[in-house]
Specification:
- By secondary structure, the protein is an alpha/beta fold.
- The chain has a single domain, classed as NAD(P)-binding Rossmann-like Domain (Rossmann fold), CATH 3.40.50.
- The strands form 3 sheets. A 7-stranded parallel sheet has the order 3-2-1-4-5-6-10, sandwiched between helices. A 3-stranded mixed sheet has the order 7-9-11.
């Protein structure tokens, strides 16, 4: 049995990853550490079989709770999803993001190093990062893993800080790691502050959807299960101390995401008027990046991963899930 510590496992991507791992990888015992902030929800994992799963409530900045987990279980790997991740919140309270996304990462690294240093064989630290670390790619070539990092927000800057610590521990202490730079995730169980569930919730409640600026910001949207498959592929087969971009390499404007969701909902529930009646353009976000572009040749070439779910298919699945789970 392999023992894996998932941090932030009650959140959107973390809980989907745990479900994916639990269903398809019977040789893993899963330990979930989550602080249960506003974005963490244990309902995401209420179907877990306690025979291969245990939950600890705690903060990744707390050395004691993380070390307690290592003393109870022979942890082989860590996948760190725990993060403050909403750009708007980072513009208002950047210190919170630095504490979790930098100091929290450093604490996890310290505990791992303490418990693994006598035997680093078959150990792995996975730092889940974001395509936002590359900054605005409008007018630029897609960013590959060697592209200079150029964060635009306190959030993306804090994720760069976490990445640099992971790389430093790898170089200084030979700690095995991979860094995953994922594009925008979407799918079931995402908190409604994010764009796609926000659009669904506002249309269903017959309220206007706030769209920043002109709505023509372009993003690479990856269905959460595709992202989970990629992360698991990296955990099991990724070359030590390598970075992998993870996305679809297809860009869609935010306004077009809205149109697709509006069309899906209109086919399923009663909605008056056309999509224009449900939009409210609002003042653009401070420092808002126009485009994120990823080059994902490396993970395709080295690990044979590629996305399986097309955007329209993924959005249809997502809309159907929220219609069945209105409490979200």
């Amino acid at each position: 049995m392999k023992y894996i510590l998932i941090t932030g496992g009650a959140g959107f991507v973390g809980s989907n990853f745990i479900e994916y791992l639990f269903k398809g990888f019977k040789d893993y015992y899963i330990i979930n550490l989550d602080k249960l902030t506003y974005a963490g929800n244990l309902k995401n994992l209420e179907r877990m079989n306690k025979g291969r799963y245990n939950f600890f409530k705690g903060d990744i900045k707390d050395f004691g709770i993380v070390d307690k987990i290592f003393s109870k279980y022979p942890v082989d790997s860590i996948v760190n999803f725990a993060a403050e991740s909403h750009v708007d919140r980072s513009l208002k309270k950047p210190q919170v993001f630095l504490e979790t996304n930098v100091i929290g990462v450093q604490n996890l690294l310290d505990v791992a190093l303490k418990n693994w240093k006598s035997n680093l064989r078959d150990k792995k630290f996975i730092q889940v990062s974001t395509d936002e670390v590359y900054g605005d790619r409008q007018g630029c070539e897609p960013a590959d893993e060697s592209t200079i990092l150029n964060p635009s927000s306190p959030y993306s800057a804090s994720k760069v800080g976490g990445e640099m610590l992971v790389k430093a521990y790898g170089r200084s202490y030979s700690l095995p790691y991979n860094i995953v730079r994922s594009s925008n995730n979407y799918g079931p169980k995402q908190h409604k502050e994010k764009l796609i569930p926000l659009i669904i919730e506002r249309i269903m409640s017959k309220n206007k959807v706030p769209i920043y600026g002109d709505g023509k910001q372009k993003r690479d949207w990856i269905f959460v299960e595709d992202n989970c498959r990629g992360i698991m592929k990296i955990l099991e087969e990724g070359k030590d101390r390598e970075i992998y971009n993870l996305g679809t390499e297809k860009l869609t404007e935010n306004i077009d995401i809205f149109k697709i969701i509006f069309k899906e909902l209109k086919e399923k529930i009663e909605i008056e008027g056309n999509y224009k009646d449900s939009i409210e353009f609002v003042e653009d976000r401070l420092g808002h990046d126009r485009e994120y572009r990823l080059n994902c040749d490396k993970i395709k070439r080295e690990l044979g991963w590629k996305p399986a779910v097309k955007l329209e298919e993924g959005l249809e699945k997502t809309v159907e899930w929220y219609l069945k789970n209105t409490e979200y």
